[in-house]
Specification:
Oligomer: single chain
Low-confidence stretches: none
InterPro entries: YtpI
Distance between the termini: 50 Å
Protein name: Membrane protein
Order of helices and strands: HHH
Number of strands: 0
Pfam families: YtpI
Mean pLDDT: 95
Radius of gyration: 16 Å
Number of helices: 3
Keywords: Membrane, Transmembrane, Transmembrane helix
Organism: Lederbergia ruris
Strand content: under 5%
Helix content: over 70%
Length: about 100
């Protein structure tokens, strides 16, 4: 499935992008915000990798591992989204204080 491969590559690219921004940032709340974004991207990558494996191979072991990847990826994406949502107001406040 080409669309799954595209989503996998795109989410991996976003993960690397946010991790590079995380390393280059000096503000603590911005770092936590970027860490949440990168966690979402990594979770999407792992989940869609598991979905892609379900289409490629039809064995029992692949189904078990694919479902495990989907569950871990979804959990990571959900935790990253909750972290991102929690830290957005603090990062905005921190950015406003730094601009003064």
């Amino acid at each position: 499935m080409p669309i799954l491969v595209f989503i996998i590559v795109l989410s991996l690219s976003f993960y690397v992008f946010y991790k590079i921004k995380y390393v280059r940032s000096h503000l603590p709340m911005e770092k936590k915000l970027l860490n949440g974004k990168s966690s979402v991207a990594l979770g999407i990558f792992v989940a869609f990798f598991g979905i892609n494996q379900l289409f490629l191979y039809q064995t029992t072991l692949t189904y078990i591992i694919g479902i495990l990847f989907i569950a871990l990826g979804a959990a990571s994406a959900w935790a990253g989204f909750k972290s991102y949502r929690y830290h957005v107001p603090y990062a905005v406040k921190e950015a406003e204080e730094m601009s003064k």
